[in-house]
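Notes from the 1:1 (GR / supervisor)

We went over the backlog. Supervisor wanted to see one worked example end to end before approving the batch request, so GR pasted a single chain during the call. The sequence is below; no edits were made to it. Supervisor asked that the structure be written out right there so they could see what the output format looks like.
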Amino acid sequence: MTTLREWLAEGPFALGMSSGFFGFFAHCGVLEVLEQEGLRPSRVAGSSAGALVTGAWAAGVEPDQLAGELLGLERADFWDPAPGLGLLRGRLFRERLEALLPVRDLRHCRVPAAVSVYDVLRRRVRVLDRGPIAPALHASCAVPGMFHPVVHAGGVLIDGGVVDRPGLAGLRGADRVLFHHLASRSPWRRAGSDALRVPRRDGLVTLVIDALPRVGPFRLPEGARAYEAARRGAREALDRPVGAEVRV
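Structure output shown during the call:
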């Protein structure tokens, strides 16, 4: 049977990455393995943690550089409580993004990149694929209750995973998609929630790495374990038979 590695090498593919709180450690591990294997996506999309990793890579941040940034992260680097609709202002997070990203506009990324956000006033998901990249990523990562909403692109925006947890809204029409699905359940998601189901559609191959350590602002040391577990899982998955779902 065709392996996942062989399927990815057959032609251009898009990469989608789901939301999942601090799941960017695991996403980064998966992307680093793809890069090392010469399996580079031709376009990317994501929501929240998935938007952060795919957007940073599209902007020119190499996976090992992003890993170094994440693995050195301390809570004080983004912890800026302030009154508002959320615990954290988000100014420190935005500043880190601005300093990290080599390009400023989504249109200047090395591959097309799409970021899912939720527009509070319009009450719908929006896909941002042009304009300033840092505020788009900031908005997609603005977890309700944790970060203040982000005023950007004519809207009041929060975490894209509120409605588009898979982060695939920006890949409608893509016929070959590798999707990294974070299977862990956030505390505010009920068991069996539709948002946690693995999406199915023609041309979509979903990678699921089970038993990834859960990471959060008070569990940042678990990020290194999640990153390494995702790298091991991705390497193993590449040699598994390809199907609608590849689970390791």
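Supervisor's comment: Strands lie at 14-17, 43-47, 113-119, 124-128, 150-152, 155-159, 177-181, 204-208, 245-247.
Batch request approved.
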